[in-house]
C-alpha cells in the first residue's frame, strides 16, 4: 500500500473516477474500475453482511453489490436517474474479486494532483480512519479516496 | 494454438503407461499365471524405455532397461511372480516415475538398491544354471578360445562430470564388450558437508569377462583418456562364478556349445538375435502357435494398439474443457433469455428460431458435459496399490474388489474424490478389517475383503466402500463422544446419530495412534469435501459383519437440474436431486404455529418457513407450498409462496464477500437476466434439525 502511494507521489498525478455518495464526493482509483453500468435488478442475499446485501448479474457473472453508504453511515437514497453501479476489481486474500459499488452519481474521470494530498486528520471525522486512504483537494473541494480493501473486509 | 512441449507429451503418455503397468503388476499378484498380464506389463515397460530414450530421459531408459532385464525371467515363465517380487517391481515403477516427474528428487543409490532387490528375487530360486543373457550383449561364439578377460581400475578426475562425461555411460559401454562385474570404490568419498555435488568421487573396480583385446577397451575411454587413470591388467584365470548376477552376467561355466547357442538365441530379443538364429526361432514360434507372448510379436501388437488409440481419442488440455463449459453455460443463459423474449412477443419466426436454438443449446450442453466425463475406473486403479501396500504393512491380507469402473463422473469430481476415498479405504483396512487371528476366532476367512463400487442412481452416482471387518463399535464411539463432551452421558441417541460423531473434527476412537490413522483428522475432512461437491455421505454398519460407507455424488459440478421457487419477491433454486415431493401446506399445518411439523402420510417432518429465513417482505400467498427435501435419511419441508417449475441451473459460485452466508451454495442467472440463489440443502436440513432439537430442549425444560 505504502509503496503504491510512494509511486503515485512521484508520478505526481493519480487517475480517479469521481463518484458521489449522498453529499460527499469519493475518488476511486481508476485502476480498480472495470466498468460503470446502469442499475440492474438486484437479488437480496439473506444472512449476508449489511454492506454487501445483494448480488447482481454482470455479463454472466454473479457478483456482490456493495453499498458504501452503509459503511459510511449515510442515508440510503432510492435509485434516481443518476444512480450507477461501478464495477471494481479488488485483491482479497490474494485473489481478484469483482465487486459492484452503488454510486448516487458518477461525475467524471479526472486526475487529482498528489501535491494536494492531505493527511487524514485525526479529529473532525465521523468515519473510521482506516476506511480512508487519504483526502485530496479537487476544485476547491475535499474528496475522499477510500481504502476499498479495508472497507470490504 | 499453443504447441505442447514434447517432454510434457512424454510425461503424460508415461503416466498412462504407469497405470497400465501398475494395474498389470497388481493383477499379477492375484493371478500369477496370467501370461497376458506379464505381457502387458512388459509392453508398458518397453514403451517407457523407448520413448524415454527418445526424449532424452537417459536415466529412465537405462533403469527401465535393467528392470526389464531382471523381469525377463518372469516373462519367460521361469519364475513365478511372488508377492515380494511384485512389491519390488512396484517400487521400481515408482522410481521410474520419480525419474520422469522429478529427476532432482531421486538418487541413483535408491535405483541401484531396487535393482539389487529385483535381481535377488529373480535369481533367488535359481540353481547354479544359466543367468539371463540380455539383448545388447553380443552372443559369444561358444567354441571361441576362452580368454580370462581384464581387470580394470578406473579413477576419473574429480571434475569429469562438469565436462558432461558420465562415467556410468562408460561403464555401460564397457558392459557391451561382455559381462562385467563392477564394484565401486567408495574410499575417496568425503563427508557430506565437504562434498561438492558436481564432483566425481567414485572409482571403479571392474572385472570384464570377455575375450576382447586391449584396443576395444581403450576405444571405450577414448574421449576421457586425459581425465582419468586407467589401470588395465589381464585376469590371471577364469574367476569362479561371480558372486551374484549383478550386471548382465553371463555364466562362464563350460557348456556344450549347442546348448549355449540355443540358450542365447532363446533369450535374445528379436532385434539383436543373430541372423542364424532366426529360422530356429521361427520354428519355435510355429511350434507354439497359440502363445502370443513371443517377444517378436509384442512390439507389433503394441504399435497396433497405439494406432487405434491415436484415432479414437484426442488429448485436450483440461483448462480448455473448462473454458468450453463456461461458454456453454453462458450460451444456455442467453438462450433462456431469448426464449423468454420470444414467448412474450408474437413473431412466429423468432419463436421458431428460439426453439431451434434451445434444442441446439441443450444438445451442446449435453455433449460438452459428456466430454468432461471420465470413467471412475481411472481413479479406482490407484487404490489397488494403496490396498496392496497397506495390507502388506499391516500384515492383514486383504482382497480388493472393484466394480462399476465404467461409471462416468465429471473429471473435476474424480480429482476431488481421490483424497476422501484414500481416507475411507485406509480406515477400512486399519480399523475395519480385523487382524487374521481375530478373524479366524470369529469364524471368518483369513483374508479381509474391501469392495469399492460405483453405480448410477438417477442423477447421482453412488460410490460405496464396503469392508467385511468388525463394523463400527457404537459403544466406543458413544463413550468417546461423552468423554469429549459432545453429548451428555445417558442421552438417548440412535445408533445412526452416534455414528455421525465420526464426522466430528478431532474425533478418533483408535486407541493408539498409528502412522495411518487415529489422529482424528480425516472423516470430517472427507465429509466436508463430499459436501463441497454437493454430495452426501452415509454410514451403515453391522457389528461383526462390516461397514458400508456410501458417497452420493451429483454427476457434474457445472450444471444441475433445479426447482425454481418464489419466496416473497425473490426467486430461489432448490437442487432437484434433493427434492422428494411437493405438498400444499394445509390450513391445519398453518395454524400449528408453535410446532413446525408436517404430517406427511403419518410421518412427522419438520419444516422451515423460507419467508422467515429470507426475511421476505409483502404478504404471503394464500396457499403456501411445501417442498420436501431430503439428504440421506433426513427429510425436511421448505415452505415457499410458489413453485415455478424446473430450471436448467448453471452454477456460479458466490463471491468471497459472501463466504459467511451458509444457506446458499451458489447462484445462477435466470432467463430474465437476474441472479437467483441456490439453496444449500445440507445446511437447511442441519438448520431444521438443530431447530427441532432446540424445541425438544425447551419442551423438556
From TrEMBL, chain A:
Kindly provide the name given to this protein in its UniProt entry. Chemotaxis protein CheW
Q: Which InterPro entries match?
A: CheW (IPR039315), CheW-like_dom_sf (IPR036061), CheW-lke_dom (IPR002545)
**Could you tell me which species this protein originates from?**
Bradyrhizobium agreste
PANTHER family (alphabetical): CHEMOTAXIS PROTEIN CHEW (PTHR22617:SF23), CHEMOTAXIS SENSOR HISTIDINE KINASE-RELATED (PTHR22617)
Q: Which SUPFAM superfamilies match?
A: CheW-like (SSF50341)
Residues of the CheW-like domain: 13-153
Name the domain of life this protein comes from: Bacteria
Automatic annotation (TrEMBL), chain B:
Cell cycle is among the record's keywords = no
Q: Which residues form the HPt domain?
A: 1-103
**Which InterPro entries does the record match to this protein?**
Bact_Chemotaxis_CheA (IPR051315), CheA-like_dim (IPR004105), CheA-like_homodim_sf (IPR037006), CheW-like_dom_sf (IPR036061), CheW-lke_dom (IPR002545), HATPase_C_sf (IPR036890), HATPase_dom (IPR003594), His_kinase_dom (IPR005467)
Report the transmembrane regions from the record: none
**Post-translational modification Phosphohistidine, affected residues:** 46
The EC code for this enzyme is 2.7.13.3
Instruction: Outline the extent of the CheW-like domain.
Output: 559-690
| Residue segments, region Disordered | 270-309
Q: Which domain of life is it from?
A: Bacteria
Where is the Histidine kinase domain positioned along the sequence? 351-557
Which residue stretches does the UniProt record annotate as biased composition, category Basic and acidic residues? 278-309
Query: Catalysed reaction(s)?
Result: ATP + protein L-histidine = ADP + protein N-phospho-L-histidine
Record keywords: ATP-binding, Chemotaxis, Kinase, Nucleotide-binding, Phosphoprotein, Transferase, Two-component regulatory system
Claim: Kinase is one of the keywords in the record? yes
Role of this protein: Involved in the transmission of sensory signals from the chemoreceptors to the flagellar motors. CheA is autophosphorylated; it can transfer its phosphate group to either CheB or CheY.
What PANTHER family does UniProt report for this protein, alphabetically?
CHEMOTAXIS PROTEIN CHEA (PTHR43395:SF10), SENSOR HISTIDINE KINASE CHEA (PTHR43395)
What's the protein name? Chemotaxis protein CheA
Q: Identify the taxonomic lineage of the organism of origin.
A: Bacteria, Pseudomonadati, Pseudomonadota, Alphaproteobacteria, Hyphomicrobiales
Amino acid at each position: 500500500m505504502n509503496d503504491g502511494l510512494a509511486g503515485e507521489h512521484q508520478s505526481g498525478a493519480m487517475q480517479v473516477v469521481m463518484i458521489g455518495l449522498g453529499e460527499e464526493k469519493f475518488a476511486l482509483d481508476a485502476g480498480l474500475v472495470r466498468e460503470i453500468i446502469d442499475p440492474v435488478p438486484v437479488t437480496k442475499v439473506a444472512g449476508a453482511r449489511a454492506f454487501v446485501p445483494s448480488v447482481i448479474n454482470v455479463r454472466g457473472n454473479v457478483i456482490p453489490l456493495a453499498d458504501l453508504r452503509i459503511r459510511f453511515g449515510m442515508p440510503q437514497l432510492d435509485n434516481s436517474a443518476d444512480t450507477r453501479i461501478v464495477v471494481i476489481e479488488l485483491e482479497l486474500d490474494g485473489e481478484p474479486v469483482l465487486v459492484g459499488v452503488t454510486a448516487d452519481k458518477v461525475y467524471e474521470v479526472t486526475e487529482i494532483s498528489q501535491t494536494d494530498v492531505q493527511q487524514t486528520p485525526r479529529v473532525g471525522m465521523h468515519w473510521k480512519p482506516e476506511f480512508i486512504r487519504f483526502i485530496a483537494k479537487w476544485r476547491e473541494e475535499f474528496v475522499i479516496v477510500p481504502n476499498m480493501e479495508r472497507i470490504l473486509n | 494454438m499453443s504447441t505442447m512441449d514434447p517432454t510434457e507429451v512424454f510425461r503424460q503418455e508415461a503416466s498412462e503407461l504407469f497405470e497400465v503397468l501398475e494395474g498389470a503388476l497388481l493383477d499379477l499378484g492375484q493371478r500369477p499365471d496370467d501370461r497376458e498380464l506379464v505381457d502387458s506389463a512388459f509392453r508398458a515397460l518397453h514403451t517407457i524405455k523407448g520413448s524415454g530414450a527418445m526424449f532424452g530421459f537417459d536415466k529412465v531408459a537405462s533403469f527401465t532397461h535393467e528392470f526389464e532385464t531382471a523381469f525377463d525371467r518372469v516373462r519367460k515363465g521361469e519364475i513365478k511372480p511372488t508377492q515380494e517380487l511384485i512389491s519390488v517391481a512396484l517400487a521400481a515403477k515408482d522410481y521410474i516415475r520419480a525419474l520422469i516427474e522429478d529427476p532432482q528428487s531421486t538418487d541413483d543409490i535408491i535405483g541401484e538398491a531396487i535393482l539389487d532387490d529385483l535381481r535377488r528375487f529373480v535369481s533367488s530360486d535359481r540353481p547354479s544354471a544359466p543367468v539371463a543373457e540380455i539383448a545388447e550383449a553380443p552372443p559369444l561364439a561358444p567354441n571361441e578360445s576362452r580368454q580370462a578377460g581384464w581387470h580394470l581400475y578406473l579413477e576419473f578426475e574429480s571434475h569429469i562430470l562438469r565436462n558432461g562425461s558420465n562415467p556410468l555411460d562408460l561403464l555401460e559401454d564397457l558392459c557391451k564388450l561382455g559381462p562385467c562385474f563392477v564394484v565401486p570404490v567408495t574410499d575417496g568419498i568425503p563427508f557430506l558437508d565437504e562434498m561438492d555435488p558436481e564432483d566425481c568421487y567414485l572409482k571403479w573396480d571392474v572385472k570384464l569377462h570377455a575375450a576382447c583385446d586391449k584396443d576395444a577397451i581403450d576405444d571405450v575411454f577414448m574421449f576421457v583418456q586425459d581425465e582419468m587413470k586407467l589401470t588395465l591388467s589381464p585376469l590371471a584365470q577364469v574367476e569362479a562364478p561371480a558372486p551374484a548376477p549383478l550386471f548382465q552376467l553371463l555364466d562362464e561355466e563350460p557348456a556344450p556349445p549347442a546348448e549355449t547357442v540355443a540358450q542365447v538365441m532363446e533369450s535374445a530379443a528379436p532385434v539383436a538375435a543373430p541372423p542364424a538364429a532366426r529360422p530356429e526361432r521361427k520354428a519355435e514360434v510355429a511350434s507354439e502357435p497359440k502363445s502370443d507372448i513371443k517377444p517378436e510379436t509384442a512390439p507389433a501388437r503394441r504399435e497396433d494398439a497405439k494406432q487405434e488409440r491415436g484415432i479414437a481419442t484426442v488429448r485436450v488440455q483440461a483448462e480448455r474443457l473448462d473454458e468450453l463449459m463456461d461458454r456453454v453455460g453462458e450460451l444456455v443463459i442467453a438462450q433462456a433469455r431469448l426464449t423468454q423474449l420470444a414467448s412474450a412477443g408474437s413473431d412466429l419466426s423468432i419463436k421458431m428460431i428460439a426453439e431451434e436454438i434451445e434444442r441446439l443449446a441443450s444438445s451442446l450442453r449435453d455433449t460438452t458435459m459428456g466430454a468432461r466425463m471420465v470413467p471412475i475406473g481411472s481413479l479406482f486403479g490407484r487404490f489397488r496399490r494403496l490396498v496392496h501396500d497397506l495390507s502388506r504393512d499391516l500384515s492383514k491380507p486383504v482382497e480388493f474388489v472393484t466394480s462399476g469402473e465404467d461409471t462416468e463422473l465429471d473429471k473435476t469430481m474424480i480429482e476431488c474424490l481421490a483424497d476422501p476415498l484414500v481416507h475411507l479405504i485406509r480406515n477400512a483396512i486399519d480399523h475395519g478389517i480385523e487382524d487374521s487371528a481375530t478373524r479366524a476366532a470369529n469364524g471368518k476367512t483369513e483374508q479381509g475383503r474391501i469392495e469399492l463400487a460405483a453405480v448410477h442412481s438417477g442423477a447421482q452416482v453412488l460410490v460405496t466402500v464396503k469392508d467385511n471387518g468388525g463394523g463400527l463399535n457404537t459403544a466406543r464411539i458413544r463413550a468417546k463422544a461423552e468423554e469429549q463432551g459432545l453429548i451428555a452421558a445417558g442421552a438417548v441417541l440412535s445408533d445412526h446419530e452416534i455414528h455421525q460423531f465420526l464426522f466430528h473434527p478431532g474425533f478418533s476412537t483408535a486407541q493408539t495412534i498409528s502412522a495411518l490413522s487415529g489422529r482424528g483428522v480425516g472423516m470430517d475432512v472427507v465429509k466436508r469435501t463430499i459436501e463441497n461437491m454437493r454430495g452426501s455421505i452415509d454410514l451403515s454398519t453391522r457389528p461383526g459383519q462390516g461397514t458400508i460407507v456410501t458417497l452420493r455424488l451429483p454427476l457434474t459440478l457445472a450444471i444441475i437440474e433445479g426447482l425454481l421457487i418464489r419466496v416473497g419477491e425473490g426467486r430461489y433454486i432448490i437442487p432437484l436431486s434433493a427434492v422428494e415431493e411437493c405438498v400444499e401446506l394445509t390450513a391445519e399445518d398453518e395454524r400449528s404455529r408453535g410446532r413446525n411439523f408436517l404430517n406427511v402420510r403419518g410421518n412427522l417432518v419438520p419444516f422451515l418457513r423460507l419467508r422467515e429465513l429470507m426475511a421476505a417482505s409483502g404478504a404471503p400467498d394464500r396457499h403456501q407450498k411445501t417442498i420436501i427435501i431430503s439428504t440421506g435419511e433426513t427429510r425436511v419441508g421448505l415452505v415457499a409462496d410458489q413453485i415455478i417449475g424446473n430450471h436448467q441451473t448453471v452454477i456460479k459460485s458466490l463471491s468471497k464477500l459472501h463466504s459467511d452466508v451458509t444457506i446458499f451454495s451458489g447462484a445462477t442467472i435466470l432467463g430474465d437476466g437476474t441472479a437467483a440463489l441456490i439453496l444449500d440443502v445440507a445446511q437447511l436440513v442441519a438448520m431444521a434439525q438443530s431447530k427441532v432439537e432446540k424445541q425438544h430442549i425447551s419442551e423438556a425444560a
